[in-house]
């Protein structure tokens, strides 16, 4: 599982990095991505969740907060073809 660190970044920097790395993960055939946004005031978490909502290929993984290992992270499922299929398209 790929991890995207946007913690301690400014809002616009975090948005650009999140967008770029999620698209890279999609093209590499990743299934899940963990976004580390930190806890703070929740601004980066809200930005990440809002962005996930705008993408057809991303699905927020809802987990019970009681069992979540890191409250400063959000897990996203990437609804993409397999790595093998993507590699065939790249060839």
From TrEMBL:
Residues 4-79 form the Smr domain. It holds the Pfam family Smr. InterPro entries: Smr_dom, Smr_dom_sf. It comes from the Bacteria. This is DNA mismatch repair protein.
